[in-house]
C-alpha cells in the first residue's frame, strides 16, 4: 500500500471589497528589496491594495480614510 504525502496547509487569498488583500495560511512574502515576511500557518495578514498604507506591504486602514473603491469580481 502506498503512503499518501502529508496534506499541504491551505493558502487563501481574498480581496476585501474596497479594502486590502486578506491572506491566510503559510505564506512567505518577499518584497522588492528581498525582505522576507514570514506569514506562518494559522496567521492572517492584510496586504495593502490601495497604495496609501504607511506600513506597506501591510494594510494600515488608509483605504478607509481615503475613500478607496475597488470591488471588482473575477471572471
Give a written overview of the molecule:
Helices cover 5% and strands 27% of the residues. With 75 residues, it is mainly beta. A hairpin with a 5-residue loop joins strand 3 (27-30) and strand 4 (36-39). The protein starts with 11 loop residues before the first strand and ends in a 10-residue tail after the last helix. The mean pLDDT is 87.
Topology:
Layout: E1 12-15, E2 21-24, E3 27-30, E4 36-39, E5 44-47, H1 62-65
How would you describe this structure in keywords?
single chain, 75 residues, mainly beta, Ribosomal Protein L9, domain 1, 1 helix, extended, metal ion binding, CDGSH iron-sulfur domain-containing protein, 2 iron, 2 sulfur cluster binding
Number of strands: 5
CATH architecture: 3-Layer(aba) Sandwich
Please tell me the overall pLDDT. 87
Instruction: Report the major sheet.
Output: 3 strands, antiparallel
What is the distance, rounded to the nearest whole angstrom, between the alpha carbons of the first and last residues? 42 Å
Give the CA-based shape.
extended
Summarize the structure.
The chain is mainly β and 75 residues long. The chain has one helix spanning 62-65, and strands at 12-15, 21-24, 27-30, 36-39, 44-47.
